[in-house]
Amino acid sequence: MSKNKQNGKQLSHLERALKQSEKKNEELEKQLSKSQEALQTAIEEECLERVLKNEAYAFLLAEGLVDKFLEFREYFHRTKAQNALYNLVAEAHQGGLWIDL
């Protein structure tokens, strides 16, 4: 095989490998972009959830309901209705925002 043919095959092989690498790079860039968007959304939701929880805690403090809440956390202090609602919420195990705006 002549040196030119051998070099041509090597060049052809390298060009194919380069195209595959470029394609893989594009796919990775798309995945990165989607991951960054998902992360940004999660960060925004977490910030909003933190604000809402702080507002709820401030309300409990302002209304003098912290002690009632602490009692509620212990199942034997809950009424049947409170326990039923608590169990429904716990079973739903919903992620994200806990207050529907």
Give a brief description.
The protein is mainly α.
Principal-axis shape equals: rod-shaped
Largest sheet, in brief, is: none
What would you call the structural class?
A: mainly alpha
Order of helices and strands: HHH
Radius of gyration: 29 Å
Determine the mean pLDDT: 88
Unreliable stretches, pLDDT < 50, 5 or more residues?
none
Q: State the end-to-end distance.
A: 74 Å
Number of individual domains: 1
Fraction of residues in β-strands: under 5%
Number of helices: 3
Question: What is the count of β-strands?
Answer: 0
Proportion in helices? over 70%
Polypeptide structure, described:
By secondary structure, the chain is mainly α. The protein has one domain. It has three helices and no strands. The radius of gyration is 29 Å and the shape is rod-shaped. The mean pLDDT is 88.
Could you outline the blueprint of secondary structure elements for this entry?
Blueprint: H1 3-62, H2 66-72, H3 80-92
List keywords for this structure.
101 residues; mainly alpha; rod-shaped
